[in-house]
Amino acid sequence: QGHNVCAYSGELSAWRFKQWTALQAAGAANVELATDRFSGKQFYRVADSAMPKNDEWWRQRFFLYDNKITSASDENSILSVFEYAVRRYGCSVFLVDNLMTARFSTSAERDFFRAQSNFTGRLVEFAKKFEVHVHLVAHPRKAQGNLEADDVSGSGDITNRADNVF
Q: Residue 35: CB partners within 8 Å, gap ≥ 6?
């Protein structure tokens, strides 16, 4: 839709994140079933014919913060890179995947929920300051049936501070 994106994933390596995103960007018509020659496992991949167009889509539109960088998961580093992405590349959509992988400046376990709340608040402030949208992935606790905001793992402020909860 013409919005530049900057994403942080503390779980997926950059190549895996790009691979999964490329499958979505390519669309079903440009994805094919392949077989790993060593394990025999089948997987989906972007067809070779679609890769140049897919790579062009990435260029100057989708920026991925590589989690191999030593301080990549530090809350201050994430926000610093996001601010740079707004100013330098005009990003207006951001992703933090996920809250549990972010490292907070507090080391005391008793302050962990407060640190989650503070980081969520900082993301909200960032979104408002730069008039951007931030998607924060926060996984649910073990639950059965329909999930509700109270099922999100961690501080209750995560959902209280968010504009939307899905």
A: 41, 42, 43
Element (H, E) at 45: strand 42-46
List the structure tokens of 86: 């707004």
Residue 53 tokens, joined: 């167009």
How many whole angstroms separate alpha carbon 92 and alpha carbon 30? 27
CA distance 156 to 148: 12
Copy the structure tokens of residue 133: 């949208």
Q: Cβ atoms within 10 A of the Cβ of 123, count? A: 24
The angle formed by the CA atoms of residues 34, 95 and 129, to the nearest 5 degrees, is 160
Measured in degrees and rounded to the nearest 5, phi and psi for residue 77 equal -70, -45
pLDDT number for residue 63: 93
Profile the chain (166 residues) by mean pLDDT over runs of 10 residues. 92 88 92 95 94 87 83 85 96 89 68 83 95 88 73 68 76
How distant, in Å, are the alpha carbons of 88, 98, 99 from that of 147?
38, 18, 18
Across-strand partners of 134?
A: 94
Beta bridge partners of 9: 97
- 34 - beta bridge partners? 43
